[in-house]
Amino acid sequence: xxTTVRVLLCDDHKIVREGLKMVLADDPAVQVxxxxxxxxxxxxxxxxxxxxxxxxxxxxxxxxxxMDGLDVLQTLRRDxxxxxxxxxxxxxxxQYAVRCIKLGASGYLNKSxxxxxxxxxxxxxxxxxxxxxxxxxxxxxxxxxQGRTKSGIELLSHREHQVYLLLTQxxxxxxxxxxxxxAPNTVSTYRARILEKTGTKNDVELAxxxxxxxxxxxxxxx
Length: 222
Description:
The protein is an alpha/beta fold.
């Protein structure tokens, strides 16, 4: 049985990948077998390495060019259901951990996490377990408890959430359509649903709403 945790490292910033490789190199039982800097190249790397045959954990950022990490996650769950995916992002755990786990991730870590916690999570996920922090566990429990009232962000679908992030970053409907390969009228439909679910009336109110919910990530989101 393979005792080395083979990691596919996915982040579009080379300096971040180099830093992570330095952290991972401290554990002789962890090996970075490949890197990817866009959503499509993540999928290409998994295909080349034959999924779980060559990879034990995909360490995946959310904000990836070409295809965002959540879309990549959904594709991996469909095509390689036995391949563990550990999300690592600067997005706040409060807003993203539950969303990622509901989409099939084996865990979620913020990039500010302690290196020891990252290593422990990698080993746990590679062994077939889940990495769930106490905060995430509490959020997950509340979803299945006595039907509490969800916040507007929690009510958004995956695609609505993508549009929501881009709207709060100041992108126009046309720009969002081009980035997500959607017709402008489709983006407008999503925008209307987002305004309704968040109880806001326009993009300015939506931006203020995002700030108040600690979800406005600026222009990069890394």
